[in-house]
Design goal:
- This protein is globular.
- The strands form three sheets. Strands 1, 2, 3, 4, 5, 6, 7 and 8 form an eight-stranded mixed beta sheet that branches. A four-stranded mixed beta sheet has the order 13-9-12-14. A two-stranded antiparallel sheet has the order 10-11.
- The protein has twelve helices and 14 strands.
- Helices cover 29% and strands 24% of the residues.
- The longest helix is centred in the middle third of the chain and has 11 residues, at 143-153.
- The protein is of the alpha/beta class and 327 residues long.
- Helix 3 links the parallel strand 1 and strand 2.
Length: 327
């Protein structure tokens, strides 16, 4: 952890110092309204009013301050980071932003703690609606512990929405210990199949792939070190679905009304919901929509015999992700 802190805190002074695009790859273009506020926040992170959000690896706090405005004064945002310097920088701007937002009291806090040990900072079970993360979980030696902690602190129906780097194969010990590759977000990349396995073991619903894009390595020396291994930047959403929400396949109709997505909600690579349109979904998606913060935005009914035209999601399977990773 100390070497990673040094690499980010001392050696990397600007984007041009990076040797790959792993840490700056955007997995999907962002609408102008959000891009103007902050380029790295995805438009699928919607329905945020009054939510409690946890940002893993919050850095200087930019994402947190944007989210603190989106959740409103009744919501709350917690940013955690392992580096003391980043946390102190983030804290300096709390009063400024609360005044700008017109809040009577702060709805954001920053804590120095490792994301594998959220309990050390007193973060309780079932206390957050959403956990977000942007290209930092790959830096954690124990990724299972990170997902386990995220699952623990999420409320039933809660979501983990995160972007990170994934590899086409299990990385050798040589690659995992390479100092520059660690700082470039590659040495800690999880084999993509392991994400699906760990998510299942922890208790999450199957990962919903939102977007994926290849990572280019512009450094000849690093290219020779990684060999035939390929990397992608991918965004996933995982849900903590309670057993009581699991029934069977369903037919769902988006009622519209989500700010910025009144007519159409692009949920992931499989499902785009248009206002008023009936869509057949599998049991997992039906359970996700039924238990999550999106529930009141949908009419959800059990599957019935097809009557007339029904729309279906276009399935993007783990097999297709494998194809993207292999390039």
């Amino acid at each position: 952890a100390g070497e990673v802190e040094d690499y980010y805190g001392k050696e990397l002074q600007k984007t041009e110092d990076l040797k790959t695009n792993a840490c700056i790859t955007s997995s999907k273009p962002v609408p102008k309204a959000v891009r103007d506020a902050l380029e790295r926040v995805h438009e699928e992170v919607v329905c945020l009013e009054s939510c409690w959000i946890l940002d893993l690896g919050s850095g200087s706090g930019r994402d947190c301050y944007l989210l603190s405005q989106l959740v409103g004064e009744q919501g709350h945002v917690t940013g955690i980071d392992m580096t003391e310097g980043q946390v102190e920088v983030a804290k300096k701007h709390i009063a400024y932003h609360m005044e700008k937002f017109g809040y009577q009291k702060p709805n954001v806090e920053f804590l120095q703690v490792y994301m594998e040990k959220l309990g050390d900072a007193g973060l309780a079970d079932n206390s957050y609606d959403i956990v977000i993360s942007n290209c930092v979980i790959n830096l954690a030696p124990d990724k299972r512990a990170v997902l386990q902690e995220a699952y623990r602190v999420l409320n039933p129906g809660g979501e983990m929405y995160f972007s990170d780097v994934y590899a086409s194969q299990c990385l050798s010990e040589t690659l995992r210990k390479h100092r520059v590759l660690w700082g470039e977000c590659l040495a800690g990349a999880l084999y993509w199949k392991d994400l699906y396995r760990i998510a299942d073991e922890v208790g999450f619903s199957p990962p919903c792939l939102v977007t994926a894009s290849p990572i280019t390595i512009g450094d000849k020396e690093l290219e020779s070190i990684v060999g035939d291994c390929r990397f992608v930047s991918a965004t996933f959403r995982l849900f903590k679905v309670p057993g009581s929400s699991r029934a069977g396949p369903g037919q769902v109709t988006y009622n519209g009304g989500i700010v910025g997505h009144k007519r159409e909600l692009v949920f992931d690579a499989n499902f785009t919901f248009k206002e008023g349109e009936v869509v057949d979904v599998d049991a997992e998606m039906a359970a996700v929509l039924r238990s999550s913060r999106f529930a009141e935005k949908f009419l959800i009914q059990p599957s019935a015999a097809p009557q007339g035209c029904r729309c279906k999601g276009v399935k993007v399977s783990s097999r297709q992700l494998h194809g993207w990773v292999q390039g």
